Amino acid sequence: MANPQLHNGHTRIANEILDQIIKTNLNGTQFRLVMAIWRYTYGFQRKFNEMSVSFLAEKLNTSRSHVDRELKALIERRIITVVEMGQKGARVLQFNKNHKEWSDKEPEGKSVPLTLKNKKPVKTNKKPKYSEDNTYYKMAIYFHGLVEKVGQEAGLSHLTKKANMQTWADDFRKLIELDKVDKRLAKKVMDWVVQDDFWKTNILSASKLRKQFPQLAIKMNAQRQPQQPKIQSDHRDKEIEFQQWIQGGGDPDEFNWNG
């Protein structure tokens, strides 16, 4: 007979989180993934942990493809966030306890299940709400300040004046979490792009920055690589070579001074 006891180990979950999870539309696999991530983060008194798709598939006793699909849905909805890539090559996952940032929107190709027979699936367009202290919102504000100055100098301020910081924040989230771009590299590219003569008037939004990011990063790195100084030949080296040519029996008229 099973006899679980708290002193053998337990996972502390705030009641507010439980209340929100109860209200959240999750399918069975998504709910089990949330439980697994709680177990291997909060269950070990830590906020995040490196967990591969194979590890989670084993814990859920299901296929890797199934876990990969539903985990991407949770990440897209901001219920689970990716902190970074771990030392073992897997993602470091964290449960996002700020439930105000969660999105009810299902990933593309999915819809909210039927609630009543013969009724059409109900789709929602609710986007995640980013607070002012959210990292991605701060990135949006920072980049907007840079491009706003460029826009004013180029007479294009009307292109940045009505920018939606919530949309920009979501673009930065996708850049970091989905495109796997390091935050420090993202800032370097932001600082560089507003100084580049060509790109500074072509990248005036977070969405364009994300779209062109690989090309921008490559060009930035190419410009920052130090140029190797050209080695100038010393004419004295050629004179020494000429003397050696003569000493070796060579015809002075046949010596190649340009080689």
Fold blueprint:
Layout: H1 15-23, H2 28-39, E1 48-50, H3 53-60, H4 64-76, E2 80-85, E3 91-95, H5 135-153, H6 165-178, H7 183-193, H8 206-224, H9 235-247
Antiparallel strand pairs: 1-3, 2-3
Helix pairs in contact: 3-4, 5-6, 7-8
Brief write-up:
The protein is mostly helical and 259 residues long.
Low-confidence stretches: 111-119
Mean pLDDT: 84
Residues in helix, %: 40-55%
Overall outline: elongated
Which structural class do you get from the secondary structure elements? mainly alpha
Structural write-up:
This protein is mainly alpha-helical and about 260 residues long. The protein has 9 helices and 3 strands. Strands 1-3-2 form a 3-stranded antiparallel sheet.
Notable features of this structure?
259 residues; mainly alpha; 3-stranded antiparallel β-sheet; 9 helices; 3 strands; elongated
